[in-house]
Amino acid sequence: MKTTAHDVKRLASGRWVQILEAMGGLTSLQLNPSVHGPCPKCGGTDRFRALDDVAETGGLFCNQCHNGDSSPKSGDGLAAIQWLCECSFPDALKRVAEFTGSNQVNGSRTSQKPPVTPNRIDENYLKFLRTGF
Question: Which of 14, 28, 41, 46 has an alpha carbon 20 to 30 Å from 128's alpha carbon atom?
Answer without folding.
Answer: 14
